[in-house]
Amino acid sequence: MIQPHLKIDKIEKYVLLPGDPGRIDRIRKYLSNTENLNFNREFRSLSGEYKGIKISAVSTGIGCPSAAIAVEELAKIGAKVLIRVGTCGGLLKKIQPGDIVIPSAALCFDGTTKEYDPNIEKVKASEEVVKALIESAKKFGIKYYVGVNRTHDAFYEPIENFIKLAGQGIISSEMECSAIFLISKLRNLKAGAILVVNTPEPPEEVMKNPDIVYQLVDEKKVKEGIDNAIKIALEAIRILEKKIYGKE
Questions:
Q1: pTM, two decimal places
Q2: How far is Cα 156 from Cα 150, in angstroms, rounded to an integer?
Q3: DSSP state of 202
Q4: Residues 6+ apart with CB under 8 A from 72
Q5: Do residues 239 and 135 touch, judged by C-beta distance below 8 A?
Q6: Element (H, E) at 75
Q7: Is residue 5 part of a domain?
Q8: 230 domain residue, yes or no
């Protein structure tokens, strides 16, 4: 049955989930035998192959509400493993733009997960997916950080909110992981994420001039990081294919 928002009726079992529809083209570069599936609203979809494994990519747009729609509809048409490939703000002083973050869990500062469970505070990523992403990053020799991510709803929140998170053991902040992790668990899917830091932990002078935080983005390093994230995610799928399904 054609899904009402994705406008497709089938998908491969492995699906990469970028937020930005434009990132679908970045993923396409690493695939062969690609086929455009559809592009409706923020949901752009593509299928192809990576080293003989069939893979799809579907953009989710910005925030948990649209990400939740994507996961719900993907679960109905064949998806089994989801990996978000996105960006985040860094919350550790040692993390810099372009660095890789692999969330082990997401704190639910969003409203969407509360619609599913009013008492939810944190949701874990699939342990199998996290381990595969770590193994893949090590294989490429790419530095990565693992820890708890914070998912929230307002990109242009008061900068004070973001700064208060520093030093609290949270590694990153973004807008989709909690919904992707939770709904995947509810629908018996495996889900994880690989994130690229686009802004580091804000220095103290940001409190005096909040607009500075958006000047801390190093676009070149972020683009390199996104390519690294895509490579790691795709190779993690090869690892999962072998471990879950016993196939090379």
A1: 0.95
A2: 15
A3: P
A4: 183, 187
A5: yes
A6: helix 64-76
A7: no
A8: yes
The boundaries of the domain holding residue 218 are 14-245
* Cα separation of the two ends of the chain: 31
* Residue-wise pLDDT tens digits, 12-56: 999 999 999 999 999 999 999 999 999 999 999 999 999 999 999
- CATH of residue 184's domain is 3.40.50.1580
DSSP state of 23: H
Is 199:217 a contact under the CB 8 Å cutoff?
yes
Contact in structure between 111 and 156 (CB atoms under 8 Å): no
Collapsed DSSP state (helix, strand, coil) of residue 5: coil
The pair of structure tokens assigned to 169 is 């053991």
The residue written with tokens 């294919």 in the block is: 241
Which residue, among 122, 149, 144, 150, has the nearest Cα to 233 in the 3D structure? Answer: 144
Distance CA(125)–CA(139), nearest Å, equals 21
9 part of a folded domain: no
Residue positions counted in the chain: 248
Q: How many domains does the chain have?
A: 1
Q: What is the DSSP letter of 11?
A: -
Side-chain-side CA neighbours of 172 within 13 Å: the count stands at: 33
Domain assignment of residue 52, yes or no: yes
